[in-house]
Amino acid sequence: MMAPRSNMVSVGAVLASVLVAGCNARDPSPHDAGTSRDGSAHPPGMRPSLPMDAAVSSGTDAAPPESSQTPVERGEYLVRHLSGCVECHSPRLPSGQFDESRLLSGVVNLDDLDPGDPQRGAIHARNLTPDARTGLGAWSDAEIKDAFQHGMARDGRVLHWSMPYFIYHEMTEPDADAVVAYLRSLPPVENAIPDRQPLPVELEEPYHLPHGIVPDSTLSPGHPDYGRTLRGKYLATGAGLCLFCHTARAADPGLPLDLERLLMGRREMLPVPLGTVVEDDDVPRIQTRNLTPHDTGLGAWSAGDVANAIRLGVSRDTLPVCDPMPSNFGGSLRGVREQDALDIGLYLTTLPPRDSGEIAACCSACHGPMADGDAGAVDADGGCL
After folding, report:
1. How many angstroms separate the CA atoms of 246 and 223, rounded?
2. At residue 108, does pLDDT exceed 70?
3. For the chain, domain boundaries
4. Which tens digit of pLDDT belongs to each residue from 39-60?
5. Quick check: 371 pLDDT over 60?
6. pTM score of the predicted model
7. C-beta atoms surrounding 180 within 10 Å
8. DSSP assignment of 153-183, as one string?
9. What are the phi and psi torsion angles at 362 (to 5°)?
10. Whole-number Å distance between alpha carbons of 293 and 290
11. H helix or E strand, kind and range, residue 100
12. What integer pLDDT is reported at residue 191 of this predicted model?
């Protein structure tokens, strides 16, 4: 029997995102506020009525400096929001929302890397709670960090890169320690997760990105916003998963990313919430968007536009995003702080523009062509975020 698949991005955690118009996205939370033209916050529950073009200044809900947070508070923010661990490691209710009573207790059959063979390819998301028998209770701090930053399990096995440890490898030591502190603070949940099946391509050693390969902003070091682009780069490619979800897979099935096309989109994903187990193997796949400011990517988007897509799930034309972007109601990105989202946006919109070619609209993958023969309703820039 074929194992169910989930929207792992052939990832584990994710900050994956697919922005598209014309889909039945969930409404924004009444507690959310957006970023307006001048960088101020919209009243809770209200979407901006016009495209944002100047929302680069500090927002009204900008977070206190990380140094003012306790390690557990910082870790909670990373695990539940920015780094997206909760998306793939938490069971969901029938409504699609996280089961808070079993938060981070693991998911069986998160993905099947070899759907044609029932004896291999099924992988699972580990129980991250401190349960001594089925979770991380017996793991040391170093063993936990070896797993999510270096791809080495406690038993010496190499983790599959669906758990994007090679992204979290760039996480700062204080942030990595904060993740561990938060996981230690969780109530233990007993939930036995089976071992993964044999992989289609066995892994002999962990994968790591070549040093210095992630692109920098085009702003010069003397620019007043240069420091913000460095911070945005870290949030998008070291503590968060924009790089993973918006880079196509390598042609080599044993490698996670096409290093020639970083942040240029075209990663194939399922149009369902991250971590959702999918029984139907015929669900169409969609491609993520080019995040560089080329006309085939973000184009004229501002940092504020990107921030609103991340936090509210609306495009620069206020049209809704579709799954698997976890910024719909209840998604992890809803809790990303405005200043963090703005800094990510500033980094992305000042990258060197790179042509990724036309990427098909996501709506048509699920809803088919419209009656007039068009590919489906899309936002003004087309394609997916």
Report:
1. 27
2. yes
3. 1-385
4. 334 333 332 322 333 333 333 3
5. no
6. 0.80
7. 22
8. -TTSPBPPTTS-HHHHTTS-HHHHHHHHHHH
9. -70, -35
10. 8
11. none
12. 98
